[in-house]
Design goal:
This protein is of the alpha/beta class. It is built from ten helices and 15 strands. The chain binds nicotinamide-adenine-dinucleotide. Residues 133-264 form the GFO/IDH/MocA-like oxidoreductase domain.
C-alpha cells in the first residue's frame, strides 16, 4: 500500500509530543516535511523524528512537497488560513483545536473541504479516551436512564510551561490565540459532552474572565484564564463546563454525568478511569486507561484515525462540521459572558 505523504505545520509542543511521534509510529505514514516560521523549532523536530525537509513557510511547503495530508498545529490564528490553503493544494487536513477564531472561518474551512473533496478532521482527542468511549456506550444503551445533568472540568496551571514559545507565549495574546482557557481547554470539554450525550446544546450562560495570569510586565493577560459555563441540551439536560489556567498543583480533567439510575465519573480517580454509582448504592469500577497530561503523554489515537480515514476513503467522524458545532457553543459562551444574558444557539 502506498504511504500517506504527510507534512506538519507548526513544530511546537503538540507536534513534538503527539503528532510527530504518532505519525512516525504509523506504518502507513511518510512524514516528508515539517514547517515552522521559527526554523530552529522546525529543525529540532526534523532532527528528532528524522524528517527530510524543513520549511519556514507553509505555502512553500504545500507547493513544493504537494503532501497528501497536512497537520495544522500552529497558533490558533493560523488554523483557518493554513487549513484552507492545504485543502486547496489537494491535501487532507487534521487541524488542531480550537478549530479557528471566528464562526465565519470555521464555515469557510468546512466549505473548502466540501469544494475540494478533501477530508477535514479536528483534533478533539478526548473522544478517543477509553473511558469516554465506554461511557458513551452506557449512555446510549439507556441502562442508566436519561441524562439529567453533568459537570465537566479541564483545569491546570496554564500553558506557559508547556508552550515552546517562551518566555512570552502566544497563548496569552489575543491577536494570536483569540481565546484563553476557554478555547484551549473548555473547547475540549464542550466537544466531549456533545459526543457523550449525542445531542446538541441549545442554550448557554457563562462567566469568562481573567483573574490571575499576567504578562512579564505585570499586566493581566488579554485572554481569559477562567471560565464557568452552564449549558442546556435539546432534551433539557443541564450542566456545567469549567475551564481554568489557574489550578495550582495538579490537573483536573474530570467529568460526572448524572442519570436517572446512577452517575458516571470519568477520570476523577487516579486509578479508576470510570466509576459508576448506581441509585441502589452499588458501584462498578473500571481501570481502562489514564488521561494524558501535559507532563505524561500517552498515544492519543488521533493520527491513526486520520490516516485510516484517508486510506479507507471514509469521512472522519470528527469532521469540520462537528468542529463547527462545538465552536458555536464556545462563541455562545463568550457572547453570554459579554452580554450577561442567556444565549440561544442556532444550528
Ligand atoms: N489537542 C490538544 O490537546 C492540544 C494540546 C496542546 C496544543 N494544542 C493546539 O495545538 C496548536 C499548537 O499548540 P502548541 O502547544 O504546539 O504551541 P507551541 O507554542 O508549543 O508551538 C507553536 C508553534 O507554532 C509555530 N508557529 C507560529 N506561527 C507559525 C506559522 N505561521 N507557521 C508555522 N508555524 C508557526 C511557533 O513557532 C511554535 O513552534 C494550538 O492551536 C493549540 O491549541 C492542542
Amino acid at each position: 500500500m502506498l504511504k500517506v505523504r504527510l507534512g506538519i505545520i507548526g513544530c511546537g509542543s503538540i507536534t513534538k509530543h503527539r503528532h510527530a511521534p504518532e505519525a512516525k509510529s504509523n506504518e502507513n505514514v511518510d512524514l516528508v516535511a515539517v514547517c515552522d516560521n521559527n526554523l530552529i523549532n522546525a529543525e529540532k523536530v526534523a532532527k528528532m523524528f528524522d524528517v527530510p525537509k524543513v520549511y519556514a513557510d507553509y505555502e512553500t511547503m504545500l507547493n513544493e512537497e504537494k503532501p497528501d495530508a497536512v497537520v495544522v498545529a500552529a497558533p490558533n490564528c493560523i488554523h483557518a488560513d493554513a487549513t484552507i490553503k492545504a485543502l486547496k493544494a489537494g491535501a487532507h487536513v487534521l487541524c488542531e483545536k480550537p478549530m479557528a477564531t471566528t464562526i465565519d472561518e470555521c464555515k469557510k474551512m468546512v466549505d473548502t473541504a466540501k469544494e475540494t473533496g478533501k477530508f477535514l478532521m479536528i483534533a478533539h482527542n478526548q473522544r478517543f479516551n477509553k473511558a469516554h468511549i465506554k461511557a458513551k456506550q452506557i449512555i446510549q444503551s439507556g441502562e442508566l436512564g436519561r441524562v439529567l445533568s453533568f459537570k465537566t472540568t479541564f483545569g491546570h496551571g496554564g500553558p506557559e510551561s508547556w508552550s515552546s514559545d517562551k518566555p512570552d507565549t502566544w497563548f496569552f495574546h489575543k491577536e494570536k490565540a483569540t481565546f484563553g482557557s476557554m478555547g484551549d481547554l473548555g473547547v475540549h470539554k464542550i466537544d466531549l459532552m456533545r459526543f457523550l450525550l449525542g445531542e446538541e446544546f441549545v442554550e448557554a450562560a457563562a462567566f469568562v474572565t481573567t483573574l490571575a495570569k499576567r504578562y512579564p510586565n505585570g499586566e493581566l493577560i488579554d485572554v481569559d484564564d477562567n471560565a464557568v459555563c452552564i449549558l442546556k441540551t435539546q432534551s433539557g439536560a443541564i450542566g456545567t463546563v469549567t475551564a481554568s489556567w489557574t489550578y495550582p498543583g495538579s490537573e483536573d480533567n474530570s467529568t460526572i454525568i448524572y442519570c436517572e439510575k446512577g452517575s458516571i465519573t470519568l477520570y476523577g480517580d487516579p486509578r479508576f478511569s470510570m466509576i459508576i454509582r448506581y441509585a441502589n448504592g452499588q458501584k462498578a469500577y473500571f481501570e481502562l486507561d489514564t488521561m494524558q497530561t501535559n507532563e505524561k503523554q500517552t498515544k492519543s489515537g488521533v493520527m491513526d484515525e486520520f490516516i485510516n480515514s484517508i486510506l479507507t476513503n471514509t469521512p472522519p467522524k470528527i469532521s469540520g462540521e462537528e468542529g463547527l458545532k462545538t465552536m458555536k457553543v464556545v462563541f455562545a459562551c463568550f457572547e453570554s459572558a459579554k452580554t450577561g444574558k442567556v444565549v440561544k444557539i442556532d444550528y
